[in-house]
Specification:
CATH architecture of the largest domain in chain A: 3-Layer(aba) Sandwich
Strand content of chain B: under 5%
Structural class of chain A: alpha+beta
CATH topology of the largest domain in chain A: Rossmann fold
Radius of gyration of chain A: 25 Å
Largest sheet of chain A: 6 strands, mixed
Order of helices and strands of chain A: EEEHEEEHHHEHEHEEHHEEEEEEEEHEE
Largest interface: A-B, 28 and 21 residues
Oligomer: heterodimer
Helix content of chain B: over 70%
Helix content of chain A: 25-40%
CATH superfamily of the largest domain in chain A: P-loop containing nucleotide triphosphate hydrolases
Chain lengths: 356, 302
């Protein structure tokens, strides 16, 4: 185990930024801390790095209590959200910094520094920029220089704060793939913070979903997407339709319609009472005629065929808006027009029900 | 019908002027007023200093600024500045660091208190030291018994100058350090730098132009200070006279040429300061422009 967090607690004045966080990060894992701004994800990352002290709880690094380790001894690489390159130094000097500040006895000779810097710049494919200043680089280039600079400490753990946050979409895609390759190549333990669910689901081995200082769920991208542990995770990851329904003796009702729900998805709901029901837009089927007693009647409000799927906005019989994505072929078959009355069925049993 | 809206398409028939530009005659009047005012109240007096200084020939001028007493005044002024500027810079860095890097109760009060010497009349600044350390006060008396005289001696001049220049470096550094933010310093620490290495290799280079600006302003004020120094100095010729005080003495003795000769040195000093200020100010602006502004603003807010 690389890093073990136990009961990490952090308060700023009266504000509770982190509320008793437990988290184990394995060797060579790529972990995403996913949450909205203010969820405490960056604070958690800074505590792992040692840039912030926890108000309570312990951090273990490879079996050693982090309190006994200075930031320097932790051997972590930290990539800041806005890269924090030293603006008065060239790219070369930025990357060489970690070697230049080593204790005199451990400091490598200038020739070794040069070789190492060029090796790292080659790794991030920026060797030709060694003499430039950070202000002369593009966002993506700065990001890669920041990574190269960080790798110079030969970190055991790489921490990245919103690594792609301030880049435009195309560069972001490219860097994402590049980081994944780098991770596989170097076998580093990586933890990155993001508010972008696509980024987390695409890149991470495991996703840690955070909300107001607490961990809502830890799991593989597949687990958190297909089996969200609670209402927050369900609504945060991917698009969902939210229906306000009720539970009666283990059966779920939306309006007058009773819904077929697989038993595994009823974990969060037993007994009776109000319920929040989440269904993803592409997991709803549309029919012109009801299919048994479990169909949800709805009316077509608008149609947007520009995209890989046709996005249809409907209004359920009891007034909730519903979004449904269908294949273009299916859409043509149905011949839907505005105002048509249709019937919706959740596919398989992919409905999430949470008692509220 | 478009024709009904006469203003569409008839730009050619009317001179087009940007909405924010003033008419030509307004511009002329404003420029004339500014230049006339500056000429009357800035350039004319400054020129008068040099004309008056050289009115009785270069010999008199050179003699005036190389006399024993003049040399002593110049030396005392330079020594005072040499002591005050490093102290001021040290305090300025410490204060700016404290105020921009830590959160603590009373921070706002401290920020306000730093400006105190600027808001107090220099004469009062001098009086404070006379009342505190004068020969007839307990502290001053005790020090005198041990052979140390502060007031009406050189230490008093240094103390008064420290007091009046107190906020200068801090005032210049605080905004620069606020804009720079913590990110680069934290990056240095994570990369293994010690606190001192971080300060020397990252913090200091980032604020260097702000610092130079502070030094220039502080040196100018330290050499030109009159009021506070006048109160504590005692005006002993060749002993406790700084250049501004010496100018006054010469003037009161009707030695106008000599007075203006020494005054011209101070005026030259002011011009050099101004030139340095301009050059350094440009460097600060250009280094600010390299900074990622929106991000740092966010951090300051957080």
């Amino acid at each position: 185990m690389s890093i073990e967090l136990r009961g990490i607690h952090k308060t700023f004045g009266k504000f509770v930024a982190l509320d008793r966080i437990d988290l184990d990060i394995g060797d060579g894992e790529l972990i995403a801390l996913l949450g909205l701004s203010g969820s405490g994800k960056t604070t958690l990352l800074r505590i792992i790095a040692g840039l912030e002290l926890p108000s309570g709880g312990t951090v273990q690094f490879f079996g050693r209590d982090a309190r006994s380790l200075s930031v320097r001894d932790r051997k972590i690489g930290f990539v800041f959200q806005h890269y924090a390159l030293f603006r008065h130094m060239t790219v070369f000097e930025n990357v060489a910094f970690a070697m230049r500040v080593l204790p005199r006895a451990a400091r490598p000779p200038e020739s070794a520094v040069k070789a190492k810097v060029h090796e790292l710049l080659h790794l991030v494919q920026l060797g030709f920029l060694a003499d430039r200043y950070p202000s002369e680089l593009s966002g993506g280039q700065r990001q890669r220089v920041a990574l190269a600079r960080t790798l110079a400490v030969q970190p055991r753990v790489l921490l990245l704060d919103e690594p792609f946050g301030s880049l435009d979409a195309r560069v972001r895609q490219e860097l994402r793939r590049w980081l994944r390759r780098l991770h596989e190549q170097l076998g580093l333990t990586c933890v990155f913070v993001t508010h972008d669910q696509d980024e987390a689901l695409e890149l991470a081995d495991r996703v840690v979903v955070m909300n107001s200082g607490k961990i809502e769920q830890i799991g593989t991208p597949e687990e958190v997407y297909h089996h969200p542990a609670n209402a927050f995770v369900a609504s945060f990851l991917g698009n969902v339709n939210l229906f306000h329904g009720r539970i009666e003796n283990g059966r779920v009702f939306l309006g007058d319609t009773s819904l077929e729900v697989g038993s595994t998805n009823l974990d969060g709901a037993n007994g009776s009472g109000q319920a929040a029901v989440y269904v993803r837009p592409h997991l709803l089927e549309i029919d012109r005629v009801p299919r048994g007693a479990h169909s949800i009647p709805a009316t077509v409000r608008s149609v947007n065929p520009a995209g890989p799927q046709v996005r249809i906005e409907l209004i359920a019989e009891w007034g909730d808006p519903v979004n449904v994505d269908v294949e273009h072929q299916r859409f043509t078959e149905l011949g839907l027009e505005l105002g048509h009355k249709v019937f919706l069925h959740p596919k398989e049993d992919r409905v999430f029900v949470y008692q509220i | 019908m478009l024709e009904n809206f006469g203003w569409i398409g008839d730009e050619g028939s009317r001179p087009v002027r940007p909405a924010v530009a003033d008419p030509f005659w307004v511009q002329c009047v404003l420029i004339a007023i500014s230049i006339g005012f500056m000429g009357l109240f800035l350039f004319l007096p400054l020129a008068a200093v040099f004309v008056e200084a050289l009115a009785r020939g270069v010999h008199v001028y050179v003699a005036a600024i190389t006399s024993r007493e003049a040399a002593a005044a110049i030396r005392l002024t330079l020594v005072t500045a040499a002591i005050v500027v490093p102290l001021n810079v040290t305090f300025g860095i410490a204060a700016a660091w404290t105020l921009t890097r830590f959160e603590f109760p009373g921070k706002q009060a401290l920020l306000t208190m730093i400006d105190l010497p600027f808001s107090v009349s220099p004469v009062i600044s001098g009086m404070i030291f006379v009342l505190l350390l004068g020969v007839r006060t307990p502290i001053g008396g005790w020090l005198l018994d041990h052979g140390i005289q502060i007031i009406f001696a050189k230490p008093g001049i240094v103390l008064a100058t420290i007091f009046v220049t107190f906020p200068i470096a801090a005032r210049e550094l605080i905004p620069v350090m606020q804009v720079t933010g913590r990110d680069e310093e934290e990056a240095a620490i994570v990369l293994g730098a010690s606190g001192w290495q971080m300060f020397r290799r990252v913090t200091l280079p980032n604020v260097r132009w702000g610092l130079v600006y502070g030094v220039v302003l502080c040196a100018a004020r330290a050499m030109g200070e009159f009021g506070a120094v006048s109160v504590v100095s005692g005006h002993i010729r060749g002993m406790t006279n700084t250049m501004p005080l010496y100018v006054e003495i010469l003037y009161n003795d009707y030695e106008f040429s000599a007075a203006f000769a020494v005054a011209s040195l101070l005026a030259l000093l002011a011009l050099v300061t101004l030139a340095l200020k301009y050059l350094v100010g440009r460097r600060i602006l250009s280094s600010m422009r390299e900074r990622p502004t929106t991000e740092t603003v966010k951090q300051v807010a957080a």
